[in-house]
Amino acid sequence: MRRAFYLARLGKGSVSPNPMVGCVVVYRDKVIGEGFHHCCGQAHAEVHAIEAVLQGNVVVNRLMRETGLTPRGLLQESTLYVSLEPCSHYGKTPPCANKIIDNRIPRVVVSCGDPNPAVNGKGVAMLREAGVEVIEHFLEEEGRRMGRRFFTNVEKKRPYVILKWARSADGNIARKKGEPTPITGLVAQTLNHRYRTEEDAIMVGTGTLLADNSRLDARRFDGKQPVRVSMDLQGRLLASLQSDARTSVHFFDGRLQSFLFVSSGILEDYISLMTQSVCDWQRVDKESPAVLFKHIRHATGFRLIPVPDTLSADRQVPFYLEQLHEERIGSLIVEGGTELLQSFIRSGLWDEARVFASPETLPGGYPEPRLPEAVRRVEDKVLDGDILHIYRNSGIG
């Protein structure tokens, strides 16, 4: 099963909003097939593992000579280990439970049930009705930890949230508020960019976007680029675009898919400006913000998401997460600044914090966010002089 967990993680960054799943087929204590879910919309882990047996490999070929069994015969005397309950419904692919039943695999060991209402016990029930012996909840806690993004999406109806910042030895993130300040070294920066390829989206606040002109990409590491997310609730970003220099703002460069939360009160002015900008939008008639929003909601590469003017400050973070969940964002890195990070901490709607710590000091600098004292640090990684501290939120909201 732990091998199945290892295989499942190979799909990190590629399968969202589907879960990472790994599968191993064992014949008399010998692994004869394994697989994992590679990409959303493609074959599931069980299919890859079963096909690895049917198509033959070194172990299967040797066992065929020793036992006289065919690949299908080996499957009929094997146990299939899978990190998540096999699906029982037709989605983008056929049900994996059918694949197991059709190949007459007699025994299946499952780590975690699938909370998706389309499955949620139906896969196990289908297998048992077909006479398959099913063992459930095997290493379940480890399985849920491995698949925590998916479980958060389905059970909490929001993305898995990772807070990230870099701090000096004296607990500061910049020399002063709004001033970009490199803190960690190249190894830590490269690791951070690798992390970006593994999650669906990255979010920064208006102040950070204006001060850093952040690219919010993973240019230091090969892989999937995250969706860029920011907000403009007071029109500060809009004001910065009221010039010919607006094409130099990386957030509006059209390279990556980007979402911008905008106050409903200024949305009409925003659309009027952006229909003439570098973004690939068609010109729309001047109508109410709600109607205009419908015109451009699915414009290529860029989306404006209106934020009700009546929304209180303590409801902003839940609203952002609700909207991103609707956009099928399964995981989100929140990178700053301090005010945005602290708003997530206050809300309790975060799951993990990654704090890159430098041995250098920034006397009199701008302070880092503060995690609650009860939050536990679960891991430290030494990164060529810097240290990455990883925290988990035990009181996840």
Task: Explain what this protein looks like in three dimensions.
It is a single chain. The chain has about 400 residues and is of the alpha/beta class. It folds into 2 domains: about 150 residues, Cytidine Deaminase, domain 2; about 240 residues, Dihydrofolate Reductase, subunit A (3-Layer(aba) Sandwich). The strands form 3 sheets. A 9-stranded mixed beta sheet has the order 11-10-9-8-12-6-13-16-15, with helices on both faces. A 5-stranded mixed beta sheet has the order 2-1-3-4-5. Helix 5 packs parallel to helix 6 and helix 12 packs across helix 13. The longest helix has 13 residues. About 40% of the residues are buried.
Short description:
The protein has helices spanning 2-9, 45-54, 58-67, 71-75, 96-102, 122-129, 140-146, 148-156, 186-198, 206-212, 236-240, 264-274, 289-296, 316-326, 338-347, and strands at 22-27, 30-36, 79-84, 107-112, 133-135, 160-167, 172-174, 201-204, 227-232, 258-263, 302-307, 331-336, 352-357, 366-367, 376-383, 386-392.
